[in-house]
Amino acid sequence: MKHTECHLFAAAILLSLLSTSVSGFPFFFPNASSVPPWFTPNTTPPAWQSFHKFAGCRNGEQVDGLGKLKEYFHHFGYIPDSPSNFTDDFDDTMESALKKYQQNFNLNATGVLDNSTIQQLIRPRCGVADIINGTNTMSSGKSAASTHSLHTVGHYTFFPHQPTWPSSRLDLTYGFLPDNQLSDTVKAVFAKAFARWAAVTPLTFTMTDSYSMADIKIAFYTGDHSDGEPFDGVLGTLAHAFSPTDGRFHLDGAENWVVDDASKSSISSAVDLESVAVHEIGHLLGLGHSSYGDAIMYPTISSGTKKVELWSDDIEGIQLLYGTNPNTNITSSTASSRETGSGSSNGGVHGVGRCWGLVIIMALFSLLLTL
Ligand SMILES: [Zn+2]
Ligand SMILES: [Zn+2]
């Protein structure tokens, strides 16, 4: 091949690789230390990082950009009505939204943007709202579940009207968007996440190659993907899923997804895939958010941490909807005794994801182009 042809060939392949990644081809890393430094968002700060400048802000004040925080509260259900654009005034609407948020996250409901509140606000989180159509899905013990006298101490919640998979559909299938071309290693992470819920319920989950026919449809997207819930780049919202029996499970393709070992991360943008998957499956089965910080259904997760064990709160909630697994008979009380044990012992998924290979290939072609 002549020198120029070689250049053209390399350029064509690089372009096609780049265009695939732009359309939402997600990147995976075998562990957090394998995320290369140039993947950290130096030029684009993580979503919501700018909220730091609101520290100490209170009613009656006006700060540039405060309207963005109102949009945030609107997105997660704390401000129900959306004007054409939010003002930068810290008004009564803002204060009442903030107090509700602070209550849901077990913070002092001061109505002031103190440091602990800001820290919680900027933490990466699930895109599903905490207040849905006026129903605060996080108000502990005040949800639909509270009408059940045995569950007044539960922090778990359900979606409004308590949608579930019907008893005739407890053997569910899941499929992956073919365009994402996920490796078996990545698919195995989802299988592990499903198995955690299957262990405590009569539900079963089986992978199918037919994405269009699957009960649960798993897809990585970036930005706007036509369901009214656009993703926002690195950190911010990580994923969202719809209540039964919709089955859509979307993850933000812009995250640095780690398939194992996220707890040892030194990269601030590393997000543990299994932790997010276990949480979103809870939504797919009918659970709302919990205000109990240790629960899987708590809305936020710090980047670089792994949190995959169902807590007694999660188990109590899901078993109220579906009952126990007749084979394992794990209940929330047996799970509680596990929780006092020696912590998680997750086997982990080993091996290098095919996308890591892709990064190397792209780097090699970049090198070729410079020759
Ligand atoms: Zn969620
Ligand atoms: Zn979506």
Automatic annotation (TrEMBL):
Annotated motif Cysteine switch, positions: 124-153
- GO CC annotation: extracellular matrix
Give me the residues that bind Zn(2+) 2, please: 126, 279, 283, 289, 297
Write out the residues that bind Zn(2+) 1.
225, 227, 240, 250
GO MF, any single term = metalloendopeptidase activity
Q: Could you tell me which InterPro entries the record lists for this protein? A: M10A_MMP, MetalloPept_cat_dom_sf, Pept_M10_metallopeptidase, Pept_M10A, Peptidase_Metallo, Peptidoglycan-bd-like, PGBD-like_sf
Q: Where is the active site?
A: 280
Q: Where does Ca(2+) 2 bind?
A: 215
Transit peptide listed as a keyword: no
What residues bind Ca(2+) 3, as annotated?
A: 232-233, 252, 255
Q: Which UniProt keywords apply?
A: Calcium, Glycoprotein, Hydrolase, Metal-binding, Metalloprotease, Protease, Signal, Zinc, Zymogen
GO biological process entries: collagen catabolic process; extracellular matrix organization; proteolysis
In the record, which residues are listed under signal peptide? 1-24
Alphabetized Pfam families for the sequence: Peptidase_M10 (PF00413), PG_binding_1 (PF01471)
How many cofactors are bound and how?
A: Binds 2 Zn(2+) ions per subunit. Can bind about 5 Ca(2+) ions per subunit.
What does this protein need as cofactor? Zn(2+); Ca(2+)
For binding Ca(2+) 1, which residues are annotated in this chain's numbering?
179, 255
* Key word Transferase present: no
Q: Which CDD domains match?
A: ZnMc_MMP
Instruction: Describe the location of the Peptidase metallopeptidase domain by residue ranges.
Output: 161-324
Give the family this protein belongs to, as stated in its UniProt record. Belongs to the peptidase M10A family. Matrix metalloproteinases (MMPs) subfamily.
Name by which UniProt lists this protein: Metalloendoproteinase 2-MMP
Q: What is the lineage of its organism?
A: Eukaryota, Viridiplantae, Streptophyta, Embryophyta, Tracheophyta
